[in-house]
User: What shape does this take?
Amino acid sequence: MTNTGESFEGYVQFIYQALLGAQGRNISVSRRATVFDNHGNSYNIDVFYEFDVAGVHHRVAIECKDTRRPVERDDAIAFAGKIRDLPSTLGIFISKSGFQPAARKYLQDHGIAHFTGGDLPHLGSVIATKISPIVTPAESAVGQPFWTLMRQNKGEATGEWCLIPIPNGPGRLTGDSNNSDVFPLFYSRPHAEWFRTLRYQEDADSVCVRGVEQPMLRFLTLMAHDEGRSFAICLPFIGDDGTPKVQAAEWSAKDLAHEYWANEVPPSFNEPPRR
Assistant: This one.
């Protein structure tokens, strides 16, 4: 009987669907999909995913090989050619019997993630590489337009955002907050650094400053809106008495999104926050 690979493709689809279900929105999955490149040419893809995370659209093309022999270099070249012509698509090659050394090297050289059948439970790490710059931005990330504070461990950001109590000072109070703590935002890195050392003092080494780029800002506001949590735009300054002070304006996630998102705000922001 000829092995068509359908059962293996179905297993890959099941694993990937489970891993993505908790992290993405608007997930679309197809098996034996026909996908078109930038020139209108069509390609057959074994398993094809499209999903949104933090307002960013991702496409994943998966090649599945269920053969007795390891994948050869020619198969790797053919798949890499498909990915090269597909717009904004992450390529993953999965072979139940592994890869010949030349095929593995070719995939590595061309940035194609590749796994054997035994690696399937770890496919989530591939998606993590796409999502991690959003939820855990690098030190080089530049605020667009904000900076914020994150917890760090051994000099590495952990992905946990720091929260502060709702400020009592003058500011814009929207009344949308359902939680006692808010996300602090700053217009510059020096302001965020100054606040970090002021607030955390001896614990300052456990907190780092990170730029909030637009994908991260969308992710934060979506999450805060779902939780009924708000933001505080903070401006540190030295008072007339020479002591450090912070002026903070409280913003709802909805208002922040409408004011500072670089693209269109989704319809969900017209719904009341979750209580």
The CA atoms of residues 54 and 219 lie 4 Å apart. Residues 137-270 form one domain. The chain is about 30% helix and 30% strand. Confidence is low (pLDDT under 50) at residues 1-5, 18-24, 169-179.
